Amino acid sequence: MKFPLLEFVGKELYFKIPNKKQISFTDQIINLKHMGGYVIAAILLQLRWENHFEESLKKAVDYIVLGNEWYVCDIVGERVMGYFLLKQPERSLPILKTYLDHKNVWVVRSVGVAAHYAVKKGLGKKYVEETFRLLLTKADTKDFHSKKGIGWAFKTVSKFHPDIIQKFESHLKTDGSIQPFFKTKIEIGLSRSAKYASKYPD
C-alpha cells in the first residue's frame, strides 16, 4: 500500500479512535512490525501534536528504538520529529538537541531526518540556521547511520538555503573535525541550489 494512502488511513483513524485510546492503538500497531503500521502510527502521533507534544515525541523515540531499522527511523522521524520541528521550532529544537547525544544511533539519525523534512517543507530561515548550527555539533560523528541522516539534512539546507552555508564557509573550511562525508553532501546541495534556493528566499 502506498504511503499517501496509509497516511490517509492514519488520519481517518485519528478522528475515529477516542483520544484516550490512541496510544494504546499505536502501541499495538507498532508491535506488529509492519512498515505500513509505522506510517499509520506516525500520523496519529503527528496529529496529536497540539495537545500531546512531549508525549508524542517520546513515543516516536520509543518506536524508532523498537523498530531498529533505518526505514522506521525515517518514516517516524519525518512525520513526527520533522513535522513538530516545522510547526513548533522553538519548542522542538531543545528536544532535538538532546537526541543528538542519545545512546541509540537511530534516534541520533532522526534529528537529521527531521531537519531534512522541516527545511524541505519551508521551515523559517532563522530556524534553518539554528538547525544547521545544531547539526554541526555532530559533524564529527563516524557512525554510518547517524552520518546518513545528518548528511541528508546538510544537503537539503545547502540546496534551499545556500546563503546560510555561506555564513559558515570559514568554519566549514577550517574545522578539521567535520567529516569529509558532510562536506561532500553540502557541495552536492549547493550544486543544486540554483534550482531550489528561490523557493524559500526569506
TrEMBL record:
<dbReference type="InterPro" id="IPR014825">
    <property type="entry name" value="DNA_alkylation"/>
</dbReference>
<dbReference type="InterPro" id="IPR016024">
    <property type="entry name" value="ARM-type_fold"/>
</dbReference>
<dbReference type="Pfam" id="PF08713">
    <property type="entry name" value="DNA_alkylation"/>
</dbReference>
<protein>
    <submittedName>
        <fullName>DNA alkylation repair enzyme</fullName>
    </submittedName>
</protein>
